[in-house]
């Protein structure tokens, strides 16, 4: 049918490219703060807020942008998010060029402002989830979204690993200019290959809702957008949404937070170089957590999101416990790897559960879970910094007690959903048995 464009595979590629480009902003200041900190004379808490600021917009804009995909289409919304990100990076570059003419306080606030704008790209996660979800049937969404989120999540790890080298070869401003060029290039690629789902394309061509849905069904589309405001309200009223928000706050928000925090932990607590810290954070932790999310999506499809989330939060608790006890490089690396495995798999498991518990409100639920859940990336780095400020150097290790607490809460919530799911299955079995018995009597 020539009146529609795109297909599942190309749309998955387009969404993943856009998410990868925007999500790199998680690492916006994680490494460069070590160059900015002495220039602006920042203390550890001020530096932590700078590192976390991209997550302000990255977290909270997920909710409206994800819901708006239902009304405006993912192509338009994702392009808008990438454009705002480009403006943010341009602002950072402009501010760095003007550092000599600005006071420390003025420069700090401008970097916070433009960091927040650049962080809009992080919010592509939820709008992209919604965008991809409408291309895939429910039974394949775990794998598709695992690929989307897993590969897209590699961006902070890759950028964290290469930025130290970019700083050495290009300097602080040159590193951000390279970032800008990459972001513009990826935006162009997305615009060229990214299309909305068949249903929304047909609506834009003037078909009625019924005719567009009928034609889209014939083309293989199974999941359809609904009213944005209605899906958000519906998702808010369901208690399962808030369990998923908390679980995602722990795994994904916690993942973002450690991607930002680990460079400081490695350099100031363990005492290694910035380049080594970039490799341990970007490759060993962030990239591993991102890639294993793909496996998490597959496992969630095969064994169920509830069962996999129970397993993954248990692993996270073990890893966090190791980090509290770790005072040497090998021990700390072990804890980091275990935490990465637990968080990466948990991220996939939670988003397998979103369409399962919110089938009539995918857009609204994705925005709430992704938006409020990822707020952990904003809140946790300053919390970890306060541990150090109050307790001194030992606070670097004791701060991981926060992850044990969050892991235990998320583990309990996973068990609650597991019990809820099995009670529902048992009711269905009773109904089926009763129906079969009644049919036998009738015959």
Kindly describe this structure:
There is one protein chain. Helix 1 (about 10-25) runs parallel beside helix 9 (about 140-150). Mean pLDDT is about 90; it is low at about 430-435. It contains 21 helices and no strands. By secondary structure, the protein is mainly α. It is globular. It has a single domain, classed as Growth Hormone, Chain: A (Up-down Bundle). It is about 85% helix and about 0% strand.
SSE pattern: HHHHHHHHHHHHHHHHHHHHH
How many distinct helices? 21
Question: Which class best fits the helix and strand makeup?
Answer: mainly alpha
Radius of gyration: 22 Å
Q: Which strand-content bin applies to the residues?
A: under 5%
In quaternary terms, these chains amount to single chain
CATH fold call: Growth Hormone, Chain: A
Helix content: over 70%
Largest sheet: none
CATH class: Mainly Alpha
The number of distinct structural domains comes to 1
Low-confidence spans: pLDDT under 50, at least 5 residues? 428-433
Straight-line N-to-C gap: 48 Å
Overall strand count: 0
Form type: globular
Write the layout of secondary structure elements.
Layout (H helix, E strand, L loop, with lengths): L7 H16 L9 H8 L3 H9 L1 H7 L1 H11 L1 H24 L6 H15 L5 H10 L4 H15 L1 H40 L4 H7 L4 H10 L9 H10 L1 H32 L3 H30 L1 H21 L3 H29 L4 H12 L2 H16 L3 H4 L2 H42 L1
């Amino acid at each position: 049918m020539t009146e529609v464009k795109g297909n599942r595979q190309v749309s998955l590629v387009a969404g993943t490219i856009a998410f990868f480009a925007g999500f790199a902003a998680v690492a916006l200041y994680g490494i460069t703060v070590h160059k900015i900190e002495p220039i602006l004379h920042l203390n550890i808490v001020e530096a932590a807020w700078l590192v976390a600021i991209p997550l302000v917009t990255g977290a909270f804009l997920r909710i409206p942008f994800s819901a708006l995909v239902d009304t405006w289409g993912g192509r338009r919304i994702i392009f808008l998010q990438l454009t705002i990100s480009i403006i943010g990076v341009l602002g950072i570059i402009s501010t760095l060029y003007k550092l000599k003419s600005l006071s420390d306080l003025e420069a700090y606030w401008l970097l916070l402002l433009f960091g927040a704008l650049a962080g809009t790209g992080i919010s592509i996660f939820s709008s992209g989830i919604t965008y991809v979800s409408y291309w895939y049937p429910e039974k394949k969404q775990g794998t598709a979204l695992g690929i989307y989120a897993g590969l897209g999540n590699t961006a902070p790890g890759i950028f964290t690993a290469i930025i130290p080298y970019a700083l050495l070869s290009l300097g602080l401003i040159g590193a951000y200019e390279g970032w800008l060029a990459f972001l513009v290039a990826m935006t162009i690629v997305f615009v060229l290959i990214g299309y909305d789902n068949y249903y929304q394309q047909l609506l834009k061509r003037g078909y009625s809702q019924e005719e567009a849905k009928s034609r889209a069904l014939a083309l293989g589309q199974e999941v359809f957008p609904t009213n944005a405001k209605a899906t958000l309200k519906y998702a808010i009223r369901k208690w399962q949404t808030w369990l998923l928000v908390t679980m995602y706050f722990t795994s994904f928000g916690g993942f973002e937070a450690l991607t930002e925090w680990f460079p400081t932990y490695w350099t100031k607590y363990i005492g290694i170089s910035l380049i080594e810290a970039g490799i341990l954070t970007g490759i060993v932790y962030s990239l591993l957590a991102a890639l294993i999310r793909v496996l998490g999506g597959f496992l969630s499809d095969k064994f169920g999101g509830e069962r996999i989330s129970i397993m993954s939060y248990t692993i996270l608790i073990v890893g966090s416990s190791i980090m509290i006890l770790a005072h040497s490089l090998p021990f700390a690396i072990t804890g980091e790897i275990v935490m990465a495995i637990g968080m990466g798999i948990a991220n996939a498991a939670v988003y397998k559960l979103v369409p399962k518990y919110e089938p009539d409100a995918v857009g609204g639920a994705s925005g709430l879970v992704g938006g409020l859940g990822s707020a952990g990336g904003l809140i946790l780095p300053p919390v970890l910094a306060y541990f150090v400020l109050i307790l001194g150097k030992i606070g670097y290790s004791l701060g991981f007690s926060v992850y044990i607490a969050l892991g235990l809460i998320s583990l309990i919530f996973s068990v609650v959903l597991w019990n809820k799911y099995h009670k529902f299955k048992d009711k269905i079995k009773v109904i089926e048995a009763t129906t079969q018995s009644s049919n036998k009597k009738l015959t």
